[in-house]
Amino acid sequence: MDYECDIGYSRPDGTTGPCLESETRLSDEQKKVALQELQLEQCDEFGYYEVSQGYRKVPGNICIGGVDLNPYRYQCTARGWLASWFTFRGIFMLGVIGAICYYGWPVFEAVLLLLPIPDPSDIKDKAKSYGNKAMEMVGAGKKNE
Questions:
Q1: How far apart, in Å, are the Cα atoms of 54 and each of 45, 71, 106, 109?
Q2: 80: which of 21, 47, 134, 139 fits an S-S bond (Cβ 3.0–4.6 Å)?
């Protein structure tokens, strides 16, 4: 198995069914308050918070692909989203994209010039002529009646 039940979730009566939220002595209002406090802590620390699907990956598991039961990740604010870009990885990716655009533009432009892209004015004229022919046919049909 790649996933096990997350903290606060369990399988009913030890079955192999889905992980369900465990019973607690907290009221619904207390659960909401605790969840909001946890989300605020995560927002302050990471800039995002996670919502569990009831599963967590088994430690040491290196499987790739398949069903993704990892927690959903939500950005807290635009600041958190921007902060995620100002990591080493984000800055590196922006640099790579910038270099590709700057140094690769002559190649990209040459490919665009070689592509057989039709002239838009030619397409516009053809569409007008087809429309005029259709109007003539419809108009000619009405005259015969």
A1: 22, 8, 51, 50
A2: 47
- Going along the chain from its start, the domains and CATH numbers come out as 3-76 (3.30.60), 88-144 (no CATH)
Q: pLDDT band at 98, cuts 50/70/90?
A: very high
Complete DSSP assignment for 36-76: HHHHHHHHHHHSEEEE--SEEEPTT----SS---SPEEEE-
Asked if 48 contacts 11 with a C-beta cutoff of 8 angstroms, the reply is no
Which uninterrupted H or E stretch holds 135?
A: helix 120-144
Alpha-carbon Rg for the chain, nearest whole angstrom, is 30
Q: What share of the chain is helix, strand, coil (3-state, %, to 5)?
A: 55, 10, 30
Contact 76/41 with Cβ under 8 angstroms?
no
- Give the DSSP H or E segment for 5: strand 3-5
Q: What is the pLDDT of residues 45-78, one digit of tens each?
A: 777 888 888 888 888 887 787 888 888 888 887 6
Helix (H/G/I), strand (E/B), else coil: 4: strand
Asked whether the predicted pLDDT for residue 129 surpasses 60, the reply is yes
